[in-house]
Amino acid sequence: MMVVQRLLHLLRRLRAQPLLLQLLFVVALVCWDSSVITFSAAAVDESSMSTNSTSIRALLALRQSISTDPSAFLASWDMAAEPSYCHWSGVHCSTEGSGIVVAILLNSHQLNGTLPPELGLLSNLSYLNVSEKNFHGSVPAELGKLRKLTHLDLSSNGFTGSIPSSLSNCTLIQYLDLRFNSMSGSFPSFITSFASLTYLDMSRNSFRGQRIPSDIGRLSNLQFLQLTNTGVEGALPSSITNCSKLYWLHLGDNSLSGPLSQDWTNLAATIRSLHLRNNFFTGRIPSTLGNCTAMTELKLENNTLIGGIPESLSRVTTLKYLVLFSNRLTGAIPESITNCTALLSMQLGRNDLTGSIPAQIGKLRQLYSFSVSRNANLSGSIPDSIGACTQMELFSTRYTQVGGRLPSSIYNLTNLHALYLTDNAFSESLSEDVGNWTALTTLDLSGNHFHGKIPEALGFLKGLEGLLLQQNRFEGPIPKTWIGLQVSEIDLSHNLLNGSIPPALGDLPLLNSLLLQNNNLSGRIPDTLQALRRLRELNLSHNHLTGEIPKNLSPSESLDLSFNNLSGRIPASVGDLYMIFTIILAENHLSGPIPDTFAAYQRLLVLDLSANNLDGEIPSALGEVPVIQYIDLSYNGLSGSLPASLGGLRRLVFLNVSFNSLRGRIHTGGIFDIVSASAFLGNPGLCGNRAHPGNCIESLDSEGVEGCNRWLPYSEHNRFWRS
Which residues are in the Leucine-rich repeat-containing N-terminal plant-type domain (predicted)? Predict the structure, then answer.
């Protein structure tokens, strides 16, 4: 500037000089000016070349560190094919055209590799996003050299190690997303110095034993904070409520403890989503949360909060999700909560609430999920207004004292997917209007006093997957309308049902559990049940069934046909030979020998064939079932000797062969050394166990089996309790 001023001064003085002299001066001035311009341009070019060289070095180092690029996203990162790196995929340069890299955006392209330390050379970088990749290894400390960085997104990768303390130099950061990695170590307390920080998500990392910095409230611009499942512990700093712009606070699945701050007034206008679930918070739910009139989600489940549900929450008319289950809340559900007409889900189960369901629940027209289950002292009935909640998909009062009559309006809930009234106190018959529940997948009415017939309409609910009506007083026949349903579980046990088992039950291709025990069913077991290839569990015990066991009845895990009047032989392939672990056929009229095929039951744990008319010998192959724990063959007509192979069953803890016609010596070793004498009662031909050694001195019979000169004592019970 001083040079220009002096030149202008000389030009004014030349005005008095001859014209030729003036022209010579101008020519000289032009030449001088050109040299200056040329020198300046050269300086700029040299600076630009230096920047370009550094950028190329950093970018090529990044390219080399990436081992997998399945979508060929980085194909353009080639100096020969594309000399201008500003045109490379994911690379963004300054609009000034100087080649300054300001952003690298590589998100969502399934790249695999590491971050090289050369990234620290990009001193003008403000955006770095490598989210949703397969990057691994540690985060390079050289990122701390990126002083202009405002957005750093490393989320959804496999980064390990600690968060570099050098990041404390990046004081301009506004957006920091490190979620879904495997980073550990110290909690980065330096983030509280990031005055411009608006977004912080470090969830699904491991900072176990670490605490949230007490001065977190310094982040006056913070709007989004998520530290879910990071392992942080200790108290939630009260200063958190000083983050007056915070609208999202998710700190669930941690080990935070202590009482919650009772003053949330500073967040009244901003907070929208508050998740503190799955921690160890104590004390009361702050009543000042009722001032947070913009809040849509309040999730405090799985803590140890006490006291009542604050009446003040009824002022939060924007609330959509109220989730407070698994605490120690007491008192009644506030009737005023029905003023929160935007509610979509209200989960209050597993508390100590009393009183009844709010009578005006029908005001919650958008409610689709409601549960008060496991509040043992909650009583009353389901309000008739429930019929207005036409969006309801899940309704649960199980394990409460709610009961009485079902309101007729409940059949208006045509969107209902799951209805759980388990172990309540309902006592009436079901209407055929259950057919209105066309979206129903699960109906659990078990443990009540429902009576009358099971509605035929249930058999037309094409989406039904689980039907649980056990432990009621239903009577009459089982409906026959079961064709083409998707049902996987039917439990009608412990009722007063009679008649035969409908063959149509065999037309349920997805059925894996059929429980009909403890009824008054009669007739034969339908052969159609053999077609149930997915059947895991079949229990028809404690009925009056007759006839033979179908030959190919093959549940894969458990078969119980006990306490019936079944006859004939035990099929050689009863149950799934390779999968079944329980076979109970006790208290029937089965005859013939025990099939040798039991040796093939590799996972069998329980075998109970007691109280039948079985004859023949105990197969020695039974000692080849490797994991069996319980064998009861008592009260049959079995003969021959005890197989010594039973002593080799290392997991066998119960054996009962009493009241048969067995003979010979009771072996030693294994189960024979631990079972009591009562296991052998009623077999006069047996002798010589450890507990009661007898003198087997009679002459050998034709098979060389020693006789016994005495009976085993009858000092113990002659029968065993079976569940």
Answer: 56-94
Q: What is the pLDDT of residues 377-404, one digit of tens each?
A: 999 999 999 999 999 999 999 999 999 9
Q: Outline where DSSP puts E strands in 285-377.
A: 297-299, 321-323, 330-332, 345-347, 352-354, 369-371
Mean pLDDT value of segment 346-364: 98
Task: Scan for tokens 């559900």, then name that residue.
Answer: 333
Residue bearing the bigger pLDDT, 564 or 30: 564
Cα torsion for 587, 590, 596, 598, to the nearest 10°? Answer: -40
Residue 452 CA to residue 469 CA, distance in Å, equals 12
C-alpha to C-alpha distance for 545 and 564, rounded to whole angstroms:
5
Cα angle value 287/348/302 (rounded, 5°):
80
Kind of pairing between the strands at 66-68 and 112-113? antiparallel
Strands (E), 312-420: 321-323, 330-332, 345-347, 352-354, 369-371, 394-396, 403-404, 418-420
- DSSP secondary-structure letter at 314? G
Q: Are 287 and 312 in contact (CB under 8 A)?
A: yes
Which of 356, 412, 354, 419 has its CA nearest to residue 388?
412
User: Any idea how long the chain is?
Assistant: 723
Residue 669: alpha-carbon gap to chain centroid: 46
- How many Å apart are CA 354 and CA 348, to the nearest integer? 11
For residue 680, give the nearest of 692, 695, 670 by alpha carbon: 692
pLDDT-based confidence at residue 638 (cuts at 50, 70, 90) = very high
CA distance 415 to 411: 10
Strands of the 613-614 sheet, one edge to the other: 451-453, 473-476, 496-499, 520-524, 544-547, 565-569, 589-592, 613-614
Tokens representing 673? Answer: 């050394």
Cβ count within 10 A of residue 721? 5
pLDDT band at 599, cuts 50/70/90? confident
Which sign does the torsion angle of CA 338, 339, 345, 350 carry? negative
- Rounded to an integer, what distance in angstroms lies between the CA atom of residue 529 and that of residue 694? 50
Q: Taking Cα atoms as reference points, which of 627, 520, 612 lies closest to residue 562?
A: 612
Q: How many CB atoms lie within 10 A of CB 258?
A: 13
Contact 545, 565 (CB under 8 A): yes
Question: Which candidate, 415, 458, 450, places its Cα nearest to that of 433?
Answer: 458
Specify whether the CB–CB gap between 710 and 689 falls below 8 A. Answer: no
Task: Return the residue matching tokens 């009542």.
Answer: 308
The residue written with tokens 């067995």 in the block is 662
Q: What stretch of H or E contains 35?
A: helix 19-65
